[in-house]
Amino acid sequence: MNITTADRDIECILYTEEEIKKRVSELGEELYDLYKDSVPVMACVLKGASVFYADLVRAYKGHMLFDFIGVSSYGSGTTSSGRINFKKDFDNDIKGKDVIIVEDIVDTGLTLKYLKELLKTREVKSVQTIALLNKYECHTEDLDTDMYGFRIENRFVVGYGLDYAGYYRNLPYIGVLKKEVYS
Ligand code: 5GP
Asked: Does 48 sit in the ligand 1 pocket, CB within 6 Å?
């Protein structure tokens, strides 16, 4: 592998490009089994889930509708602010639809809880959430009905769409960022 400027800031790789590809393709099949009789609206939570979303929709073999919503809770730091900032709404009319929310990572679970509460007011048919990563030690919300790609420990990760201060999203793997980069 050619070591790039961004690679130098990575302490260790948690999931390689190949491992992610395999898991995302399994998730696409699992979702299709759940929704083969429906045309779900799959909503990508910008920007962190965008790379995962692009791969997941191509691993999903049925009809689906694209959507993008903007929510953030981290600002430019490495811990949740505890406040949700809703920046962009659905483009589709989601009333009566099956909605799948696609997240990059669940930390406290506040973002997903916020989105689920929001969807209750929109009279959707059903809501499913799927996140590539699950920081299972950090949940403050009850998230037992959600789907995940990988469980990870409480470490700050970047790559495959996940950023620190806007950088590292383009790394093809998921890695732990060296502490000296942000402390
Ligand atoms: P929650 O609302 O579950 O506490 O936080 C979810 C959001 O926090 C994610 O969508 C992501 O933007 C951000 N986040 C949580 N943990 C990490 C992490 O380890 N790395 C990065 N880059 N973002 C994270």
From this structure: yes
Q: SS3 sequence, 137-163?
A: CCCCCCCCCCEEEEEECCCCEEECCEC
- The residue to mutate among 10, 78, 162, having the most atoms of ligand 1 within 8 angstroms of its beta carbon, is 162
Its pTM stands at: 0.94
Tens-digit pLDDT string for the chain (183 aa)? 566 778 999 999 999 999 999 999 999 999 999 999 999 999 999 999 999 999 999 999 999 999 999 997 766 667 776 788 899 999 999 999 999 999 999 998 889 999 999 999 999 999 999 999 999 887 777 776 689 999 999 999 999 999 999 999 999 999 999 999 998
Residue 107 annotated to the active site: yes
Q: Is the CB of 146 under 6 A from ligand 1?
A: no
Q: Are 93 and 61 in contact (CB under 8 A)?
A: no
